Amino acid sequence: MKTDIEIAQEAKLYPIEDVAKVLGMTGDDLELYGKYKAKISDEYIKKIQENRNGKLILVTAINPTPAGEGKTTISIGLGEAFGQLGKKAVLALREPSLGPCFGIKGGAAGGGMAQVVPMEDLNLHFTGDFHAITSANNLCAALLDNHIQQGNELGIDTRQIVWKRCLDMNDRVLRNVVVGMGSKLDGFVREDHFVITVASEIMAVLCLAEDMADLKARLDRMVVAYNYQGEPVTAGQIKATGAMAALLKDAMKPNLIQTLEHTPAIIHGGPFANIAHGCNSVRATKAALKMADYVVTEAGFGADLGAEKFFDIKCRQAGLSPDAVVLVATVRALKYNGGAAKDALSAENMAALEKGIVNLEKHIENLQKYGVPVVVTLNAFATDTEKETAFVERFCREKGCDFALSSVWEKGGAGGMALAQAVLDTLENKESRFKLLYEDTLPVCEKITSVAKEIYGAADVSFAPAALNQIKRLEALGFGALPVCMAKNQYSLSDDPMLLGRPTGFTMNVREVYVSAGAGFIVVLTGAIMTMPGLPRQPAAYQIDVTADGVITGLF
Fold first, then answer.
1. E-assigned strands of 1-120?
2. What is the pLDDT of residue 106?
3. Which of 75, 314, 324, 550 makes an SS bond possible with 59, Cβ 3.0 to 4.6 Å?
4. Which DSSP string do the residues of 392-430 spell out, in sequence order?
């Protein structure tokens, strides 16, 4: 069996100008990065603003398991299937972080016959967007420390610096560091921290900004520290905004590549959904809606994280209204949620499936609370039995969802035809009545409680004393109307990754709360979630290499 990278490297790619023609674009609308990658020009995005919007389809999933779900693969296969049906469709997806590529999760190019290419470029440096974000983040950190070194005119309390440096790599030893050691000229000695680039507020800012003016306004109001009076100090006050914007000028432009079947794919931005808002850029999504009749996008991890934040943060801020949701599951993952051992998932096990399907049930119920029609798809495996598949289909239809099997990993677009038709039928026959989970005016504690109880299924929420003080302070500073961005483990609906299925009666533990004023949301840290991951015992990096003739190997 061929690996993903072998399939991708054997594919015949079209010049990116030819892919763009499908969307009515010309070479003048692109800024080329070689033969197969391009950025979409600002001029083109402005030119298409009067076009009508296409239909917006969100792809999300049950909670991730070691068995795999294949959400990105399904998204890509669905886009390819639309193409085979003669529909004008485009994908709007996230860029991958280097951290997971060299760690354990893998990249974000899909898999099998449902991939975006060139996959090596996408999974490694791509067009440099993440490097620009990393540089802008660390420039802000350097200017902040320099301001303190040069006299601290703003009276910054060095015990209340909240801006962290970042690196797009899983590097646990950088979570907590001491900086400024050495002579007096080396700065003030203080504790500092690193986050992974996809958790940087600048990543969120770039993904939520409408244009350069909005980007600069958001950068300007990012809180980097507090002064001795307890008042916020912003990036604008330390005069970091203009230089950061200059570094991000090209990164603001969405990227265009293609699938194995040459479906256009706009790939831009990539905040993690377990520690940020988990969606591709607003700019890319809105441009895609003007360019095609059907736009397939996705949100990271399970629907409890990615979909909730897509709705309550991205759609709230950008004025987007999704027309349908595709919820991805696998028989194997549902059996795992029902207690089946990882090495026994290939065997038929109706008892485990019936027990584990409650995870899918909860996600269906959650999505229906937003008023958007739901289509459930099973990412099919050869080991799935007819009895197992029929049980899941019957369950979904009883819950009011359309249902389709997908075999896009094996067959590409041809394996997604049933799903594409189910989505088209849903768009035709079921109206989306999209609504948000909570209002802006709700107090912060009540917003957090609403998500915890309504989406996660918590019985109660426990706020650490420090978190309550932080919430009180943020509300006093005028940030209380912002939505909340929950930072939670992705493996369970709860904040305990070991609680699979549909846990009930648990208490959600909130330990820290801080504002991302530029992004426009309040981050809520729950459980033991970390904003700088570490590498596993056997990192994927061990398998990656390059041959003497320059061919990358081992990248999935």
1. 30-32, 38-40, 55-61, 89-93, 110-111, 114-117
2. 64
3. 75
4. HHHHHHHTT-EEEEE-HHHHGGGGGHHHHHHHHHHHHH-
301 is catalytic: yes
CA 475 to chain centre: 27
Please say if 71 is a catalytic residue. Answer: yes
* Residue 179 CA from chain centroid, whole number: 31
The active-site residue, picked from 102, 272, 409, 506, is 409
* Residue 488 φ then ψ, to 5°: -145, 150
Catalytic (active site) residue 163: no
Residues 273, 333, 352, 467: which is the catalytic one?
Answer: 273
Task: Indicate the pairing of strand 89-93 with strand 294-298.
Answer: parallel
More confident residue, 361 or 529: 361
Question: Is the Cβ–Cβ distance between 486 and 494 less than 8 Å?
Answer: no
Has 105 been annotated as catalytic? yes
Q: Are strands 165-167 and 190-196 parallel, antiparallel or unpaired?
A: parallel
pLDDT at 88 over 90: yes
Residue 465: is it exposed, middle or buried by C-beta count within 10 angstroms (0-12/13-18/19+)? exposed
Residue 20 to residue 194: CA distance in whole angstroms: 39
User: Does residue 130 have an active-site annotation?
Assistant: no
**Model pLDDT, residue 105:** 61
Given a cut of 90, whether residue 461 has pLDDT beyond it is yes
Catalytic option among 60, 72, 73, 263: 73
Q: Which of 130, 194, 301, 311 is catalytic?
A: 301
Active site (annotated) includes residue 94 = yes
Task: Tell me the average pLDDT across 521-526.
Answer: 97
Of the candidates 94, 218, 253, 286, the residue annotated as catalytic is 94
| Secondary structure in 3-state letters for 234-300 | ECCCCCCHHHHHHHHCCCCCCEEEEECCCCEEEECCCCCCCCCCCECCHHHHHHHHHHCCEEEEEEC
Confidence of residue 108 (pLDDT cuts 50, 70, 90): confident
Closest CA to 254 of 30, 13, 19, 76: 30
> Of the listed 21, 87, 88, 105, which one is catalytic?
105
CA distance linking residue 326 with residue 60, whole number of Å = 6
Q: Is the pLDDT confidence value at 132 over 70?
A: yes
What pLDDT digit, counting tens, does each position of 462-491 carry? 999 999 999 999 999 999 999 999 999 999
Q: Reply yes or no on whether 453 is catalytic.
A: no
Radius of gyration of the chain (CA): 23
